[in-house]
Amino acid sequence: MQRLTSSLRLLSLAQVRTSLPINARAASIVQPRLFTTTSIIQEKLTTEKKTIKKTTKKTTGAKTEVQKAKESKKKLAEKAKVAAQKEKAKKASAKEKEKLKKEQSKEALRLKKILKRPGHVSAYNMFTKETRTKDNTFIECTQKWNVLSDNEKVRFQELADKVNKEKLQIYNEKPKCPPNGYARFLQENYNKDLPIGENGSLIAKKWQALTAEEKASWAPAPELVEAYKVAKKEWTAKVIASHSQ
User: Fold this and answer.
1) Per the domain annotation, does 98 fall within a domain?
2) Does the CA dihedral 193-198-201-205 come out positive or negative?
């Protein structure tokens, strides 16, 4: 830039000199020199302009490359952020599914325990249920039970008999699932005169020889299956309600 300014100054001086009044003889001598000097200066100016233009172009190009690099880096950062969020959401979803699976498994075990045929409740069980507290241990309850008279134990035995009767009554009301196609085929083709093993083998071979349509004809009626599902649902709710009392 300084070189361009210097060249402009020289050009200005040359123009000033050409405007001064001189005699014809001096003009014939000075003008060629001034013309030569002006041409050189103009050539230098043109060169300087080209140099500045190239430098500006390179600088602009460099800025463009830097801008592109920044934009590319920004895009990569955004992609990495989105990927991290997706991974986080995926882990959270997997964790939630695992939690739900554990809860369902726990609930299934609880239901299995509730729906299991109830065990026998003794008079001692009813006594501990009535008398045991957080401060009492089973040993203390046993000691208290052992000092009770037979007449005092009768009341607890009556309570136990009542509970056992109620529980068994609810359990005995459990609806029976209609037999499937093979079970019905087995009942129909069972030969009492043959041994159990031979019976089973012969019936199995007969069943395997049936076509898909023939096997389907032995399946229970859809209305029976639907009625069983409804009854089973009602019975399950009844057992759970009695268990929570």
Assistant:
1) no
2) negative
CA distance 19 to 136: 127
216: domain range? 150-244
Of 68, 92, 116, the domain-final residue: 68
Task: Identify whether 112 is part of a domain.
Answer: no
Dist. CA 143–CA 193, nearest whole Å: 60
Q: How far is CA 135 from CA 130, 131, 138, 142, in A?
A: 14, 11, 10, 14
Residue 19: inside a domain, yes or no?
A: yes
Its pTM stands at 0.45
Domain count for the chain: 2
- The pLDDT tens digits for 167-213 are 788 777 888 899 999 999 998 998 888 888 888 899 999 999 999 99
Neighbours of 141 (CB within 10 A): 18
Q: Compute the distance between CA of residue 230 and CA of residue 128 in angstroms, rounded to an integer.
A: 38
User: Residues 57-99: pLDDT tens digits?
Assistant: 666 656 677 777 778 888 888 888 888 888 888 888 888 888 8
Q: Which amino acid is it at 121?
A: V
Half-sphere exposure of 138 (CA within 13 A, CB side): 3
SS (H, E, C) 20-86: CCCCHHHHHHHHHHHHHHHHHHHHHHHHHHHHHHHHHHHHHHHHHHHHHHHHHHHHHHHHHHHHHHH
Asked if residue 220 is part of any domain, the answer here is yes
